[in-house]
Amino acid sequence: MIKAVDREGGEIPITRIAEKEKALFRAERPTCLAAVRCEWGGRVETTRGKKLMTRQEAEKQGFKVLKAFTSTQTSKTMFAETTAISNPLGLVFEVVPLKSPYRLGPDEPLEVKLLFDGAPLKHAVVSLNDQTRTETDAQGIARFAVKQSGRQLIAAKHIVPVKDNSEIDYLKFMTFFIFEAK
Prior knowledge:
mainly beta, eight-stranded mixed sheet, four-stranded antiparallel sheet, 14 strands
C-alpha cells in the first residue's frame, strides 16, 4: 500500500514501476506527504539469527526457532508543507504530528501522537534519530526537542502477543516518520 498527499491534503494517484530488486513510485503531481505499508509475512528468530520464513519452514530446514512472528512496517515521509500533516492516514500503526515540523518556533517541542488501529497508544517507547527516547503519555502523545537541522527520523515499535497459534508467538509492528528540520 502506498498513499501520496498534496499540499491541500488531497490524495494523489501513484504508479508503481517494478524493476529488478526495487520498485519506483511515480506521482501525477507534486507530493507533500507519502505513506507506505509493508507486510513482511512470517519471520523467525533462531539460534542462527533472524530468517524470513515461517516457523514450519525453519524447523523443516533444521533451525531451532526461538520466536516466530509476522512483521508489518509503516512509514510516512514529509517532503513539503501540507495541511494534512496532522490528520491520520489510516495506517495500522502511525505517527501523527500535532503540528507541522516546519511551523515549530524556536525551542518549541515537536508533539506527535502514536496511533495503533486508529487509537492512541499509551506508554509506548518512541525515538528521535535513534538517540533520544521518550514514552507516550495516556493520550498517546510524545514530545521531542528537535535540536539539529537536517533529516529527522521518529520511530516506534509495538508487539502484540498471539495466543493459541502454533505458527506465531506475536505480531510485530514498526512505524516511522521522516521529515527535514530547518
